[in-house]
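#struct-help
A.M.: can someone run this one for me? Single chain, 113 residues.
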Amino acid sequence: ELRDMCGPSRGKLRSASASDMGDRCMDFVAAHPDCIVRLETEPRLDRDGKWVWCHWAETGTWSGESCGLKPDGSVLEVSGHTRFEVEKQEGGEYKIARQVVYRTFANWELSLR
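D.P.: on it. Structure tokens below:
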């Protein structure tokens, strides 16, 4: 389950496969090939050990064509935080079961709407 609190889904739960999420990230990187992602704080587990919190910021330039949109050269300065709920699997490995995202948007993302 994915809940993007600031996106077009307006916080409604939706399913997203790992492949879909990977494709979306690659579309974003194609539009911003010089993108740098910084962790504002180290990812941390909550007190119950269920949710991982990650605060991040991205910088770069919309200099690549992606999703049929030509670059406008605008500066990329977005930030947000992501929470991942992890569940232990039978083999002892952990898997992301749910993700909640709060963030600002790049001009490229706003142009997709």
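A.M.: thanks! The chain has a mean pLDDT of 88.
D.P.: also worth noting: The longest strand covers residues 75-88.
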